[in-house]
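Changelog-adjacent note: as of this version, every example in the card shows the full chain rather than a window. The one below runs 331 residues end to end.
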Amino acid sequence: MVDVVEIERTASRISVAPHKHWERAEAEALYNLPFADLMFQAQGVHRANFNPNHVETASLLSIKTGGCPEDCGYCSQSAQYDTGLKATRLMPRDEVVAVAQRAKDAGATRFCMAAAWRSPKDRDLDQVCDMVSAVKGLGMETCVTLGMLTPDQAERLSEAGLDFYNHNVDTSPEYYDKIITTRTLQDRIDTLAHVRDAGIKVCCGGIIGMGEQVDDRLGMLMLLANLPSHPESVPINLWNEVKGVPVNDTAERPDPIALVRLVATARIMMPQSVVRLSAGRQYMTDELQAMCFLAGANSIFIGDVLLTTKNPQRDRDADLLDRLGITSRLA
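Full-length structure tokens:
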């Protein structure tokens, strides 16, 4: 039987010794603490590592949409499903930079560029590197998600000045093959290692609400928390409804309290990582988002669209953060 008192002591020490190996029983005991105790632990860890009244604002742009050969069962951009999405070519550099400038003017501090590839071709990577350098020139942090990378490709992105690379594990090792069959979890871990070796910060999280159980959500957090280094950013996405994809058959909207528990657990397990409320915020009430911020979430995407799905209006976000007394660049 797990000693809950010892779990609490461990959580209180996490800000001092941020990287421990998490066992399943420890993660379960932490997640299942009485709600007030879990929130108290998470808020203490959060305050030890971040300004509790500040939220990072990022913007996400699909620079190449659709036509991806992967069979990710949640994705509108997979060529294997009829989602009604038309594939596009890689956007021109100047158009991307113009969007980034508008995002900066709207309050974003990080600009994320996503391309629907299994992995980038070298000629495409040349253009992406040029975009990264140009967006950096605007004074913004840069992030890209391009699929799997080789070590050489990661080095090239690093030389272009890339700050973050996003490559999600999506779900637990046990549930992974129920969502994706064309890319193994080890493929994803290998890309994360290449990115880390190139000196690029890692953005890595997953999606909940695809039919997985709480055990799978904790398994995903354990996978991330037990990496050699914690991801600097951990996006937690709610499944976004997409026409024509297999996840529609298993998807179930997570209980709001379960979502807050997951955020709090992520905050304690990865104390120095930015935890981002990512896709699916349009399904969340203001009260639920406020609870997630209290639990340790401290980043959001702004803008009306995330890749191909909806996102809350900027004015709604600005109003909510203002009512909570949370600072950002949205004011």
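Structural remarks: Residues 4-324 form a domain with the TIM Barrel fold (CATH 3.20.20.70).
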